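Hi team,

Below is the intake form for Alpha/beta hydrolase from Metabacillus arenae. Please confirm the fields before the structure is written into the shared record.

FORM ID: S-0412
PROTEIN: Alpha/beta hydrolase
ORGANISM: Metabacillus arenae
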Amino acid sequence: MNNSSHFTMNVQGINVYYERYYNPSKPPLVLVHGFLSSTFCYRKLIPLLKDEFEIIAIDLPPFGKSEKSTSFVYSYRNMANLVIKMVDRLHIKNAYLAGHSMGGQISLYAIKARPDLFKKVILLCSSGYMKRAHSSLVFSSYIPYFYLFIKHWLARQGGVLRNLSNVVHDRTLIDQEMMDGYVQPFYDDKIFLALTRMIRDREGDLSPEDLNSIEVPSLIIWGEEDKVIPVHIGEKLHKDLRNSSFVSFKKTGHLIPEERPEYVSEKMFDFCHI
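The structure came back. Fields below:
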């Protein structure tokens, strides 16, 4: 049985969208997406995983279909706590946790805080070693209508097509469905107000010392042509996460769940011994 349902859960005072692919006889797998993304990024990977896992895919606020609150604290620690609270409230035990890009860093925060909840973690082109935003940018975020600057800056980057061209190696994969899926959340101006808050709240990535203290087994998967988070970041994470293994794919960019879903799913199955 692989029935899927879409839900909203009120967590920490805001409404969080998630999808659940029921398969109660199989181990649970929690999927966390990256910055400016949503559960949509797992659309090619989920069909390959849902027979072997019970999947919970979360839209982190303010992304996807989750609430774009301006009062929520968008620190990585708080977003990790949100994931933890959802896992607890869904009565999930011994879950596998997978995070792409920023979602990988949030997953690391989650397993550091509650290693008892998660059996193993999979990091897909995870962010790492990023510092807190410069104090001048944090200060500027308090200027009235700063959110319009963010909106203009994102538009000036060339729109969704250019952004997708930067995160995938094989640009022939970019079709209308992909463009529509990634641009949809930005039709709501509230997301830019929330991103302004995120600039202030994001505290930076875990330190090498923090990473050294993590004992939960981790699998690090990377695209060797990643222009967003270069492969040397993955190699450094592998060094600092003592109980980790590392694999990379040639001719693959940052959006690895879209570009290499078959290979990624195989590596995940092997890592989880399925």
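SUMMARY LINE: Residues 76-89 form the longest helix (14 residues).

Thanks, M.
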